[in-house]
Amino acid sequence: MKKRYVLVVIIFISFTGWILVKQVAFEYAFIPSEDKIINSTNFNVQSTHSPDKEQIELGKELYFKETFGNEVFFTDILGMVDGPFTIGNIAKAILRLGGEGTSNLQVEAAEDFSASHVNIKKGDLIDTGLDVAKGSLTPLGVKISVDEGRPKIGISCAVCHATVDHKGNVIAGVTNTDLNIGLALAMGTNTASYFTHTEMESLKEYFQHNATSEISVDGEKKTIPKAEEFEQFVDSEIIQWPIGSNDTTIEFMNNPVQIPDTFTQGDQPYGWSGQGQIGPFHGLSAAINNAHSQNMDAISQSAISEKVLQINKEVYFATLLQNAANPKFKYDISSEVKPSDFFKGVDPTPGVPGVNELIYSASFPKINYLTSISLLSSSPGFKSWEQINAMSAYMNTLQVPKTGLETSKEKMDEGKRIFANAGCISCHGGQHFTNNKVIKSEEIKTNPSRAKGFGPSERLFTNKPKTYSFVTPVPLPKDPKLIEYDISDEQKEQLDLAWAHNTNGGYKTISLLGLYWSAPYLHDGGVAVGPNGEMGVTETLFAGIKPDPTLSMKAMLDSSLREEVVRANKNSTILKTAEITGEGHEFWVDDTTGFSEEEQEALIYYLLRLGD
Fold first, then answer.
1. Do 503 and 497 meet the contact criterion of CB atoms below 8 Å apart?
2. pLDDT of residue 50
3. What would the 3-class secondary structure string for 317-328 be?
């Protein structure tokens, strides 16, 4: 479809309402040409599957536009664009740019919104953190479509893992550090469908202290949360997520993690805990699958709700669907129809749990090291793993962009010397500045809540990972050929840490490349210092102040400054249950360990310029 036609449709949606385009079906996502991406790519990557240029080019296309059908969950069920944040107002905001780009699309609120510390009035401009490239009709990583007469919004990798420079050119792989995921989700009309990402211990525990409703399943009464009160609770939890963060586990802990970059070559294992270790591309494909299959479709978790989440399947369906945005997916709690049977009647992808394009894993219903919910993201017409492997291949080509900072060889050499003398090199050595290990949470001394995130999976787990061969078509044939993975004792020890099986979990040693682009620091993003000395997440991220890389890195290395940052985070009235403190990684390079302030500054100078 020509862009001009899409623009006309979007204008209709903006100013006349979607009813006028009821019979139009289309989809559009912006895919930048190579000359619009300013950071270089390295096509001579080496991996376990030797990607070719065709696979990498497919990966790039999918990176910017592939949603695996999550439009249904985010639009029809969660109602992300049915509240203050609407597709029409997104389009208006983009039209106001006049073809120019922005790293923070400001969208006019369509109605009032209030949750916890946030109060938005109709007409206020919402700082979304969405990036729009010059000449684009949609934000990066956002696919707009019309289906069954309804405008819908879907999300691809690029919404979190790409940004634009001051000229509106794309920087691929960089963390979108000001993306306001928590606010965007909380403004949905059925954010309650994201309840597994909240601090509530269990649904049963929630019932003991809050209003409830009842459903009838085969003549038996079952309790579910009362819709309005439950929505308020989930909103108040998710609104605590700082910009640039997202909760990626479903263990009833409100513990958002900072969005990682996707400069993935040599940075294995993947994910904050390092759970992506096994399978193609050193486990990168498994980590990508987890993001798309688990975090982009809460309905997909219905397959594990009984064992892992310990929630009755019918209760789970009813809780998610009782206030669905699209009437088609809204479950009537007074109905005598079982919630799971109701869902079967409206399921856009029948035959597999969830509303996304998914297939059963080879170990279904058991979870294995390749998939946290025993499902794989894969679209009909492709081969098993084909899309995800292509995205892995593309991510591995992405190179850290140049910082633009002045660089002195003398200062870099001095910083490198301090880097070695301070012992940083013991964990962050080598070409990619990582030892590729998972470190015990007790050793790294950070809040262990995120390290334990995959622990509940042990209730429905098999230690013998297997998957389909990479030529297996989708839909799956009756007897697909399988690949089995052998795990060494050393790998098993690392995997137990990454998945928090019989352990308190751990955190991967990240690559230090691109630190300039990723402030604030630590997995929780809690080490944040503003350009004028603003301390902690509340005074920076929640105040619309971008953390300063130099001062935030100083807080990583300086014990007294870190103490101030941690104190500010712990005293925050906003971060009530979000488990963000900035504690841990107490490897100081300051006067307590015999280093001068000049030596500390030299190390910071060096760290922020790695990759230049």
1. yes
2. 59
3. HHHHHCCCCCHH
